[in-house]
Structures are given as C-alpha cells and as structure tokens.
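Changelog-adjacent note: as of this version, every example in the card shows the full chain rather than a window. The one below runs 263 residues end to end.
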Amino acid sequence: MTKNIKETVKQTYTAAVQNGSGCGCGPSCCSPEQSTSFLDENYKKVAGYQEIADYGLGCGLPTEIADIKKGNIVLDLGSGAGNDIFIARNQVGEAGKVIGVDFTEAMIEKANENKNKLGFENVAFILGDIEELPVDSETVDVVISNCVMNLVPDKNKAYQEVFRVLKSGGHFSISDVVLNSDLPKGILKAAEMYANCVSGALEKKAYLSVIENAGFQDLEIRKEHEINLPDSLLLQFISNQELETYRKNKSAIISITINAKKQ
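Full-length structure tokens:
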C-alpha cells in the first residue's frame, strides 16, 4: 500500500514538471478551478522568489516565519523545482547553504536546471525519501517543507527523521494540510479531486501528536486558514442537505504552518 501511495505521488509530481503547472497542493490537474490557490499570500512579493521554480504546489509560505538567519544550513523536504529553496537561499546569504530533498527524479532534474540557470553555488538538490533522509544527523539549523509531509505515508517516521537531522536548538517551519474533524467520505473525495495533497490528511490533533511524539517542543501554529472547496465541486459527491450541514458545522480542511524546536 505504501509503495502504491509513493508511486502515485511520484507520478503526480512528474506530471507537474511535464505540464509546467501544479497538480499537487493547490487545485489539481483535474480541478475546474485552476486559477484558485491554497495560498492566502502572494509568493511574488517574497524576496528571492524565482518564478521559474513556482508550480503553485504549496499551501503556505514557511520561509516567511521560519526565522532563517545568515549562515544557516536549511533543509527543504519535498523541494520540487526549488521554489522555497531559492527564497531560503536569499535568507541564508552566501555564507549559508540550502539543501533540497525530493524523491521525484523529474523534479530533481528541473531543480538542478533552475539552479544552473540562476548560477547558485550554495544550493544542493538530493534525490531521496523523507522517511529515510539522505542527510547526516544533527547537521541542519532549520527544516522547512511546503504541503509535502501530508503526502508521506509514515508521518511518524518522517518527523523522527526531521528530529534526527536537526542540530540541538534547531527548529522547523512546515506548512501542511490537516482536517479539523472527521469529514464525510464524499467531502474527502471532493477534496482529493480538488487537490492531491489532501489525500492522507490527518485530523489536526493527531497530526500535532505525531510532532510531539517525535520529541519536538515549543510547538506553535503560526498560521492557519480554511481551504474553501467550491460548492459546484462538493455537489458532485454530496447532497444539498449534506452541503448545508457541512457549511454550518466547523468541520473543515485547513492549511496550517507549524513551528517547533529540538532542544
């Protein structure tokens, strides 16, 4: 099952490279709402932004609240074509280093192509699995990730790996998708059609427990906003009455950005 999930994710993000647009987090390739984004902010206003690396796959701006400093070593999990990596590079300066790990070969190839076009030397993209990071223990100051951890089948192992590679006193800033409560299957199916990154989303409390169980402290939700699914999409899977109930209740699909520390 895990192998099937990973293969599906790899195929999805390979398609994103081939199509030159997002098929992951944010409206999917089969969504009619192509122009809608999960972001409540504009990446184009962020220093270091490189449009060639932006496929619209994120659900947050983790670099903006990651407290990245000059000279830091930053690791981006699921780095894609390098969108967040290039922003982090602007923050660490020439004295720092940024490392991207992604397990989709096509994304690594595209990221290195972008890196070479931009002439960046303190950037590295590594092919690897987040559940078994190809990074030495206690070598990273800051870990970032943007709407990727949600896709990892074994989230416990993934966050244990984040803990392992961080230095003592290091921290992470991760944007992801969670559920505010148990949602009807029809709504989850609609959400998965809308954005592939919703697949496998955990209930919010369960997700936070995974982080705490990995050993992190000072956990803080820095940003949070509901992901609004179009009524036209939901009504393909649920009735009008179910839609009305869903809108009245506080059940929702949420984008969150979390910071936490390794003591």
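Structural remarks: The domain at 2-176+202-224+256-261 is CATH 3.40.50.150 (Rossmann fold).
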